[in-house]
Structure formats: C-alpha cells, structure tokens
Design a protein that fits this description.
Elements: E1 3-8, H1 15-23, E2 40-45, H2 49-58, E3 62-64, E4 67-72, H3 91-94, E5 99-105, H4 121-152, H5 156-172, H6 178-181, H7 188-194, E6 203-208, H8 217-228, E7 233-238, H9 240-247, H10 251-261, H11 267-279, E8 281-288, E9 291-298, H12 303-310, H13 312-316, E10 318-324, H14 326-332, H15 335-340, E11 344-347, E12 358-363
Parallel strand pairs: 1-4, 1-5, 3-9, 5-6, 6-7, 8-12
Antiparallel strand pairs: 2-4, 8-9, 10-11, 10-12
C-alpha cells in the first residue's frame, strides 16, 4: 500500500467526479447534496516508470506496483459538527487516512447547485476547515475530561496527556489546525495522530476546474494559494470532468490527446507525486523469486523497518540486505554487470533505505 487519501469537500464540488478521475471508478455523481452516503473506495496502482524498466530488463513472471487508496466520503456542510447535513457520520471514515484530499470547486455551472449559492474557494475552504477544527475540539474535550479523572488519582501519563491537550485546545480554539501548530520535532504531532484528530493530517487541495479554466490553471492556483496561506499542504489544479473524459478514450489515444491539449501528466500521476512529497514517502523494490514488487516507505526509515513492511517474519529473522541503487542498475544494464562493477552493497539493519533502492533481504525463517 502506498498511502490512503480521504476525499472531503462541500456537497456538489465534484468530489465523486474527482474520485472517478483518480481511481478510474464509477461512483455516483449526482446534482444534489449527499449523494455519497456510504463512502466510495478505490485502489489504483501507482504509476512507476522505474518498475516498468525493471520489468523490461529482469523479465519477471509477476510485476507488482505499490498502490494508492482513495476514500470518497459524503459532502460536508456548515454546521456538520452540530449535526447539520449528515452530521459527523462521515468523520469516522477519514480518521485513519494518511492525507486529506480537499476538493474545492472553481468551475461555474448553473446546472450544478452550489450549497452556498456560488463557488468561492477561499470561503468554501474555510467552512470545511472550521468544521474539522470543531470536530477536533469535541475529541480533545472528551479526552481531557477522561485524563483529568485519571490525573486526580495520580496517574502520571494522564498528567502528561493533559499538558499536550492543553496545547491542542489552545490551538484549536483559535481556529488553527494542528498541522500548523504542533511542532513535528517535539513528538507532539505523533501523539495527536494516535488520538484520531483530523486537522493534523496534511492536506492536498484539489482545485476542481472547468475545461475553460485549465489553460489558466497556474494563475488560478497562485491566487487561491495566496489567500488561503495554509501550511502543511499543497495545491493541485485538476479538471475532473476532463480527466474522466480522457479515461474514456482508448489507452493509446490518451497521452497524444493530453499532449495536444497541453494538459500535462494525468491527475493521478500529479497527485501521487505531490502526495509522496507531502507525506515524505519513498519507493523501494524487492526481487523475490519470479516477482518484482514496489513498496512504499517513509523517508528516513531503515532496511529493518522495510523488512517488516514486507513480512513480520522477515523483520524478526533479519540477517542482512543486498542493496543496489536504481540508477546504478540502470547504468549497468543488468544485475550481473552491476555486481561485476561492485555496485551492490551488503547492508545491516540500520541502513537507511533510499528512494529507488533494489533490496534483497536475507533472513532466518
């Protein structure tokens, strides 16, 4: 698994259309609020040119990419934290995601009703953010009440939790998302993730454009970005309707069409690239028997942690890892030639895996 994204936004901003464009799904996309009552799920292979090259040269029987999961939940309206619309029903679905994809409507279409009358990206972003902050305040207050009871009977961990929750509530009561206020170096952000908060998740704002807006997408993105000034997030302009129309083309026609229209890489490719940067993820590869497989790992993790990602037995019985950098393999042409040139290294459990590493783990079963 690469990472999981929860797709949120106001009703009728094109969330399900974005979901279809990214996951090549066929979710219901209707012109009325709350058509997505139960979340739509979609898992797609992460586009990976390096994996394709490994497949061409090593000729495995099986080539397995890493994957990306999308979770499309019901539209959120102002007052959701007080039970408006579908209330907090959708919040539980996104507490476990790695990142939030917040779809923001920029397209104009009189036939698609906007819940507040007309699109205003800055206002719409603020509405959703406010509801997520209010939902987090409710979670923090509940945890605080419980921690106070435990602290009164002398539980030390409860007192430490109260100190963290004090900082959390101070931030939230000012309307500041936790991703902006919690110092990642202090370890506090890690604690808040354990507690199921929503505003500590990194956010990728998908600006949903109409076809006529695609040519000016960079200027539109810069304008919204300057006004929102959100930290711990990235902005991605995307014409969701156009993306779904391109998916309906013959696969051999898609890239020439995109090139002719100057629309650049697909929305999925761009979201994966930005998502990996946002979450500080890397990809490594394993060659086991007749299968070459891509895996996702957080930047800075060790080969021992990578082994655990593959299988717990491999982590427990880890002996050593044979590592070859992808660019060395590409330059050498074959594994045999890379070994002749001394481009394969034997690494211990503390080795930090690099993006593109080709790893063969030796372990005692």
């Amino acid at each position: 698994m690469g990472f999981t994204c929860g797709i949120v936004g106001l009703p009728n901003v094109g969330k399900s259309t974005v979901f279809n464009a990214l996951a090549a799904g066929r979710a219901e996309a209707s012109n009325y609020p709350f058509c997505t009552v139960e979340p739509n799920r979609g898992r797609v292979a992460v586009p990976d040119d390096r994996l394709s090259l490994l497949g061409e040269r090593l000729k495995p029987e099986k080539l397995t990419p890493t994957s990306l999961e999308f979770l499309d939940v019901a539209g959120l309206v102002e007052g959701a934290s007080r039970g408006e619309g579908l209330g907090n029903a959708f919040l539980g679905h996104i507490r476990a995601v790695d990142a939030i994809v917040h779809v923001v409507r920029l397209f104009e279409d009189p036939e698609v009703v906007h819940v507040t009358g007309s699109p205003d990206p800055v206002r719409d972003i603020q509405i959703v953010q406010t509801e997520l902050v209010l939902a987090d305040i409710e979670v923090a207050e509940r945890r605080k009440d419980k921690a106070e009871r435990l602290a009164r009977v002398g539980q030390k961990e409860a007192q430490e939790e109260l100190e963290v929750l004090g900082r959390v509530l101070e931030s939230l009561n000012q309307g500041i998302p936790l991703r902006q206020s919690m110092d990642t170096g202090s370890g506090l952000l890690g604690r808040t993730k354990e507690w199921g908060f929503l505003t500590d998740r990194p956010v990728l704002y998908v600006l949903n454009l109409g076809e006529e807006q695609i040519a000016g997408r960079e200027d539109l993105m810069a304008e919204v970005q300057a006004k929102v000034r959100d930290e711990g997030c990235v902005f991605l302009p995307l014409g969701a309707v156009v993306e779904t129309e391109v998916l309906d083309l013959d696969p051999f026609e898609r890239e020439p069409f995109r090139a002719e229209m100057e629309w650049g890489p697909s929305g999925l490719e761009r979201l994966v690239e930005e998502g990996y940067k946002l979450l500080e993820l890397i990809t490594f590869y394993t060659v086991v028997g007749t299968e070459i497989r891509a895996w996702t790992l957080r930047k800075g993790q060790t080969v021992l942690q990578a082994a655990g990602k593959i299988h717990s037995d491999m982590q427990r019985g880890f002996i050593k890892a044979e590592v070859m950098h992808f660019e060395d393999f590409r330059g050498a042409g074959t594994e045999e030639e890379a070994r002749k040139q001394g481009l394969t290294n034997i690494e211990g459990r503390d080795y930090t895996v690099q993006d593109g590493d080709i790893v063969r783990i030796r372990f005692q079963g």
